[in-house]
Write a structure and sequence with these properties.
It contains 2 helices and 28 strands. With 395 residues, it is mainly β. It has 2 domains: 185 residues, Methylamine Dehydrogenase, Chain H (7 Propeller), CATH 2.130.10; 142 residues, YVTN repeat-like/Quinoprotein amine dehydrogenase (Methylamine Dehydrogenase, Chain H). Strands 20, 21, 22, 23, 24, 25, 26 and 27 form an 8-stranded antiparallel sheet that branches. A 4-stranded antiparallel sheet has the order 3-2-1-28, with no helix packed on it. A hairpin with a 4-residue loop joins strand 16 and strand 17. It is globular and about 90 Å long. The termini are far apart.
């Protein structure tokens, strides 16, 4: 018998045996006393992660090949292994409570999977069990776009979740995550994304290169104040992926050409206080420039700014980073250049005294680097389908 025919015969026998199994099982119990037949009971075991560690990183995978099946992976940076996973909805955004005990997911579902009635919600997950514990409907929906951190964020202190929307008016949905209730939608014409500036305030980026500052009351009443432009949105726009430090009351935005704009957060407003360049003349001669997706991270305990850098021409701002450059955020001095074997699009830095750098590549690998020793602790390969963002507690 040929190998192909032998394989086909074996497959057929296996199929018949599989089909006959229930009948054989049923026949095997015929005629037995009732007390001799044992019922099969299902058993479930739920592993509990325990309190969140500063060395855990939460990796958001929108799963671009099949967007309705997105996921969040919880990875332990010390062991460089996956320790948990959450299934989430269509192009989600996530936020972590200040202590990591809660995970908030703004997500979208359709009643027929890929079509039908649409429902947008904020879902509440327990950070230890990773089980959903409740949800709040967003009546005006949410902006469906490739996930980025400022699509949704928690205000300082973690009481309110802000979710950006465009329907087509640009609005921000406010959800009280303590009471688990929808508060309001605040309309802010023309400006986008959310950068928290206080317990009940946030700023947004506007097309003219300015911030708009928004403050709101517990009942949803809002006050909106404009500012003057701080960058040229036509000649050298900034990346939308700025970083905000609640601990230090400062924020950083980087332009396509490598200009850093530092903002001080005062009285719930974003005040641009300084600007400086990442690049020396020698760096420009070698065509170094910032790029990636979430291309920046800030370590508040040491006042260090981390930026993904690559060599390329103008408009290569989404190219993966070959290196991470580390700067003293106070003196603007470059302290370190960290080469990346796996060129990366997203980085995060743990906010403890022994920080880890997490670098996520387009090839779905996560590199974990001990910033104290410079050692690569490990590389987690094949992390999901299309992981795009990383989050750490307290950033």
């Amino acid at each position: 018998m040929s190998p192909h025919r032998l394989a086909a015969t074996a497959a057929g026998v296996a199929l018949l045996l599989h089909a006959a199994a229930p009948f054989a099982q049923e026949r095997g119990t015929e005629g037995l006393p009732k007390e001799a037949v044992l019922e099969v009971e299902e058993e479930h075991t739920t592993a509990v992660l325990g309190p969140a560690s500063p060395h855990w990183v939460y990796v958001l995978d929108p799963v671009f090949p099949h967007l309705i099946a997105s996921k969040v992976y919880v990875v332990d940076g010390d062991s460089v292994r996956i320790i948990g996973m959450i299934n989430t909805g269509y192009v989600p955004n996530i936020a972590l409570s200040p202590d990591g005990s809660r995970i908030y997911v703004a997500e979208t579902y359709y009643s027929r999977g890929t079509r039908g009635e649409r429902t947008d919600v904020v879902t509440y997950f327990d950070g230890s069990t990773l089980e959903a514990t409740g949800e709040t409907v967003l009546p005006r929906g949410r902006f469906l776009v490739v996930p980025k951190k400022p699509d949704a964020a928690l205000t300082f202190g973690g009481r309110y979740l802000l979710s950006f929307n465009m329907d087509p008016a640009t609005t921000v949905s406010v959800v009280d995550v303590v009471e688990q209730k929808y508060v309001t939608d605040i309309e802010v014409p023309g400006c986008s994304l959310v950068f928290p500036t206080g317990e009940r305030s946030f700023s947004m980026l506007c097309p003219d290169g300015s911030f708009v500052d928004v403050a709101f009351e517990p009942d949803g009443t809002a006050t909106i104040r404009d500012q003057e432009p701080f960058f040229d949105s036509e000649d050298d726009p900034v990346f939308e992926h700025g970083v905000v430090s609640e601990k230090d009351g400062r924020a950083f935005f980087v332009s396509y050409e490598g200009m850093v704009y530092e903002a001080k957060i005062e009285d719930g407003r974003m005040r641009v206080a300084a600007s400086w360049s990442l690049l020396s003349d020698a760096d420009r001669a070698e065509s170094w420039r910032p790029g990636g997706w979430q291309l920046m991270a800030y370590h508040a305990p040491s006042d260090r700014l981390f930026v993904l850098m690559h060599r390329g021409g103008r408009w290569t701002h989404k190219h993966a980073g070959e290196e991470v450059w580390v700067f003293d955020a106070n003196t603007h001095e470059r302290l370190q250049r960290i080469p990346l074997e796996h060129h990366s699009i997203t980085i995060s830095v743990s906010q403890d005294e022994n920080p880890l750098l997490f670098a996520l590549s387009e090839e779905a690998s996560l590199t974990v680097i001990d910033l104290g020793s410079g050692e690569v602790k490990g590389v987690l390969e094949g992390l999901g389908d299309s992981p795009f963002l990383t989050y750490v507690v307290g950033e």
